[in-house]
Amino acid sequence: MEKIPAASFALISGSASWGIRFPEDLEEPGFRVSRRDVVFDTPWGPSQGWKLIDVDAALTADGRPRQILNVFAHGWPPERIDHEAHRRVAWVLQEAGVGKIIASSTAGSLNRAILAGDFVIASDILELHQTQHSVLPGRLSFECGARQMLCPQLAAVLQRTAGELWPPSARVYGQSSGLVAGHSWGPRYQTAAEARAYQLLGADFINHSIAPEATAAREVGACFVNSTHIVAAFSDYFAPPGESFRLEAVHGDLVRIASRINLLAIARASAADECGCRRLRNAWPAPIRTST
Q1: Which CATH architecture has domain 9-277?
Q2: pTM of the model
Q3: Can you give 119-182 as a three-state secondary structure string?
Q4: Mind listing the pLDDT tens digit for each residue in 61-86?
């Protein structure tokens, strides 16, 4: 297994980049893949599908070259269903010293006002059954607050970048819209009954990755934001059985644009901790950790 390199920034690639070689097929000036197909060892087995992306100083927020860690498909192994992959990815990012994470994905809308093709940045998550696959080294190691699960500083950079590139025929929803990302493990899509239930609980859109990645990012003390576009409208959950979600029609036109947004936003992100996300993870006092 390869040694985990030091890095402050990471991109978790998801379905928003499926169908292209990310980032190579974008041919974006100033970005270069220095290593690919990297596998890192973790306490829970190997984490595969990693790349290292070098960014020219002219493109970064601080005017310095930077290296970005990037993992394919949320770190999910292609040959099996493995929800523990989020923990392995988070552990790699923790060991690398990553403090800023953008995670790309697609989602289904649970809000009639949010349409297929819209770009959404969450302000909160709805995860009723927090993952058993924690990164924390024991129950009494750290107190992880649930405020500000998605970083406002990263969200602002992402929204500005999306506003520049996203098609004007669709909308970009930033954190001021107050959208909530619901979570379902998948890989099955939600039933009509499940879609109604999540909507009643307050979720505006739903997918299989945002909430556990946000939780894992909090556990390792990193800032996190989702970069997501909608591929299924709320009405699609109630379509006749013979009609599948129109994923290809929506996703095919947007994959390159979404991928460019992610790449440029992580380059423009600041390493500063002005948002305060890191302070929402704190070691429990020694008397609590050692009491019996």
Answers
A1: 3-Layer(aba) Sandwich (3.40)
A2: 0.95
A3: EECCCEEECCCCCCCCCCCCCCCEEECCCCCCCHHHHHHHHHHHHHHCCCCCCEECHHHCCEEE
A4: 999 999 999 999 999 998 999 999 99
